[in-house]
Model the fold of this input.
Amino acid sequence: MKFWNYKNALLIVLAGLLPATVNAADAIKGEEVAVLTDAPEVPPPITRKHSTKVIVNLETKEVKMRLADGVDYTFWTFGGKVPGKFIRIREGDQVEFHLHNHPSSKLPHNIDLHAVTGQGGGAEGSFTAPGHSSTFNFKALNAGLYVYHCATAPVGMHIGNGMYGLILVEPKDGLPKVDREFYVMQSEFYTKGKYGAPGLQPFSMAKAVEEKADYVVFNGNVGAITGDKALKAKVGDSIRLFVGNGGPNLVSSFHVIGEIFDKVYVEGGKLVNENVQTTLIPAGGSAIVEFKTQRASTLILVDHSIFRAFNKGALGMIKVEGEENKEIYSGKTADGIYQPEGGVIQEMGAEAPKQVPAKNLEERLAGGKRIFDTSCFACHQSNGQGLPGAFPPLAGSDFLNKNKDKAISAVIHGLEGPVKVNGKEFNSVMPAQLLSDEDAANVLTYVYSMWGNSKKVVTPEEVKAVRAAGKK
Done:
């Protein structure tokens, strides 16, 4: 009986000590200021094995920036960019969050972090007038990749103007090591003018309510991660993309052309799917995708609701340098014409929106660049180099520079059959482009001004004359 009492007493004492021992492992040790980054960069992985106090400083600011070439927009931002800063903390951390609203702001703002368990995800404790700061605290209870956004009324307008970002709560054991991590966030914009309409475009509440987006983009603007700003990698790299969808309305069908996702952390949580081609990311949601590069190529990031990619801006690039492994993908091994319907060239697309005629060369070049970036770059590439064996180069093109009328005819009437450009044979079909005389003159003048070409200027009158003469 005495032994029973002693043993049970000992068990009771141990039972009282165990929770304290477990909690000690999660005890907050020290403090640090969070490293915040602009997209597409990501803060470094967390290597510490304990929880700490993390201080986050984030500023809201209203900034006029580029939405597309020739198009500006007044963005409402977290940190002066769209999307907002990437925040990286660890499961179990105690976060002291400081939200600062820049004195130049015209409106109050707050923040709803989907990683926060509490009233409004922090929105209730962070409503901040211009020129003021607010502070609140939260415990990072759940690992995962979470969206944050402004939740000041009208909430849709604040999100629709650019107020969103991602916060990663790393699991206690961390994420598997990879060679490269990138931050990509999709969102849409609703403007009074149509896609590409120049000037400072205001927000359209009517279009936003009807969910008729003019722009669907990655990282805040058209071309944010294309061309010279494309993401960079090497053959053999393991890549992790932290992908968010700020919305405010549309679901993303996220896909990388030329790759298969080895792993997808579904909706940014712990459930992992493998060998995935396209993953859905809801508005206000996220996903973590991982893959390994196996040959040199330019991988194309798209929303596979495909008109959003090629007509509204939801397109990015990862340029992978290294060996072209022909066993994995050979490239074209044969080329020929197949025209069972008689080789009739089909017109594609609809007439470009009318624009004010260019008053000078600068305006003609700007208009031409807009047309090229929306209609021509997919085949001829942003550097004018074309695609070997498929689409001839525009850069330093002897075909273009030799005869202006032939160049005009190729654009407005189309071109088929063998053609030699810079000493190389191409045998493909270029459909006629339904462009106005003004737009055709603008895009040709832009092409002539670029990539070592002859600087010729094409006028709408010259296009009209070639059009009247018909295809020869």
The chain has three domains: 27-173, 181-321, 361-469. The domain at 181-321 is CATH 2.60.40.420 (Immunoglobulin-like). The chain has nine helices and 23 strands. Residues 9-22, 342-346, 348-354 have pLDDT under 50 and may be disordered.
